[in-house]
Amino acid sequence: MHVMRLALKYRLIITIPLALIGIGLMAYYVSCDTACSYLKGDLLGIDLKYVGTGYMSAIIILALLKQADLLRLLIASGIGVEVFLVSFQVKENVFCPFCLSFGVMVILMYLINYERAGVMNNWISRLIHAFGDAKIPFTNIVRFPLLGMMLIGYIFICLTFHGSATPAYAASESPAPSFGKGAWELIIYTDYFCPPCQLVEKDLEPEIARLMSRGDIKITFVDYPGHQHTSLYAKYFLSSVASGKGDKNMMKARNILFALAVKNVDKEDAVSSTLKSEGVALKMIEPKPVFNEWMSLIKRYDINQTPTCLLRFSSTYTKKYIGSDQIRTGLIPELKKRFPK
Q: Which of 155, 114, 136, 112 minimizes the C-alpha distance to 3?
């Protein structure tokens, strides 16, 4: 009880570090390279990261000015927003630990600043005010229920939110780059910046080259955007394919791109000059149509980590190999067995 009394007494002071943690979470999310890094959203065109930072800054200002009622109203509206954002992640089955932690900060601030002082004459009033209430400055309204602010926050984000839980690849019908023909298809999902992909690529490369020389199996490459610079590398991979110089030129570009990713090269000039200096032919194209096709392939086969490979026979057989160990010990022996030299 003593701890609770202290928390209530100093709740405005406690609110400030919680808000600072929220700002820190948004700052760290900018450099996030986890699988959820392509989880995007904005309000009226403003990135949610900046909206969240501004929201927490406003809370700090109100706490410093000791505007407890306005603070409660603002936090309550944030609860409504968080309900929507969490439901969006549940619907898309993609969960961002930074976004969820930000939501936890909002809930903690709501609980610490909770106050219910409205007059409740009947069960409807008791229900409405159960979520707390606050006085609106410069009005004759005695206590405004925070449930109303939660609904306002929820409705506002419903009307203004635009988001995506899939790679932001634009719409078109252009197919992903494939090599070879046949009823059998091998789909390779990798990310240049994924350490397990970088390792397994050395085992896959000679097997891919062997299968390409046969020409009787369709091989499709999908660059999975698990890193913020993957789209840059993917653009140059597609440019090597568009050059029309064949699979050897493409494989050389792919090998160089993986090597550059190991060094964490993130400047386009450096990527371009390295490929050209190594004799890779390039034809710059608009990559977004292929990005859209990759997005479809990622969603169609429920790919959520790399490296992942699919071995398919027409529409009757599909086997998924997830992780470098399964690819080394399962996929590669299977390919050698089904497609011998």
A: 112
CA distance 102 to 55: 11
Tens-place pLDDT, residues 225-235: 988 899 999 99
Residue 191 belongs to a domain with what CATH number? Answer: 3.40.30.10
Q: What would the two tokens of residue 44 be?
A: 């009226």
User: Rounded to the nearest 10 degrees, what angle do helices 146-160 and 68-92 cross at?
Assistant: 50
Q: C-alpha angle 336/254/305, rounded to 5°?
A: 70
User: Whole-model pTM?
Assistant: 0.53
Indicate the SS3 state at residue 175.
Answer: coil
| Domain residue limits at 275 | 178-338
Query: How many helices (H) does the chain have, and how many strands (E)?
Result: 14, 10
Determine, yes or no, domain membership for 201.
yes
Query: What is the C-alpha separation between 220 and 189, in angstroms, rounded?
Result: 9
At 51, list the tokens: 């909206």
The secondary structure of residue 168, as a DSSP letter, is -
- What's the rounded Cα separation, in Å, for the pair 296 and 148? 40
Copy the structure tokens of residue 57.
Answer: 């800054």
Whether 229 contacts 193, CB under 8 Å: yes
Q: What is the pLDDT of residues 182-202, one digit of tens each?
A: 889 999 999 999 999 999 998
Answer yes or no: is 316 within a domain.
Answer: yes
Residue 244's contacts (CB-CB under 8 Å, 6 or more residues apart) are 281, 283
Is the separation of the CB atoms in 186 and 310 below 8 Å? yes
